[in-house]
Predict the structure of YqgF/RNase H-like domain-containing protein.
Amino acid sequence: MLNFLSAVCCIGGSDGKVHLGKKTLAVDYGLRRVGLALSVGIAPRRLNKIYNRGNLGEVARRISDVARREMVLQVVVGLPLNSKGDEGEQAAATRKFCEYLRIALPEPPIYLWDERFSTQTARNRLMSSKTYRNQVENFVDSEAAVAILEDFFENSGDDAELLYPGRGGLDYGKPQQVSDNGDGPRSFKAWKQGLIQMSDEGRNPRSQERKKKKRKRGKK
């Protein structure tokens, strides 16, 4: 594993360079569970997993809460490639989720990292550490996030895909709420402005319903 001193000496800025030695959150995104781990380049620690019940905005918000509490400076999301290094359905789902995460957590840069075999590595570790078999599945997702972080730091972030550069700043302020209208993620502010615009144009369904009721009362 990359030692701590060398990691601290390799620090990038908000210009697309990987921040080694900076507090980093790893995300192992899954369709049912999301594993999390935290590190600054040495001894990554597991965090509590998050259950994914299909509400991507809610999952992104909960990860954002963790990142804000820990004052994370960069995020590494595992990209599940197949054995040939190609992207499949799971990789596409991960990229879609990252759009929600980008809105919920706009401050730190977000990187994608090849996470092939991270889950199997995590499962093997837990089994060899004498973890009770019935407890392995409870920890495997976050242990996979640990494996992602270790690999990320050991390789100095080489070949990481910068998905979103981040806007920087340690003062995260108020968390961003995320809404989904079926066409993709939007911030709560953008969603609200859209409703106001629709109302002004007379396209808001509720506004149209009120107008119909008024016309009916007028006819009576």
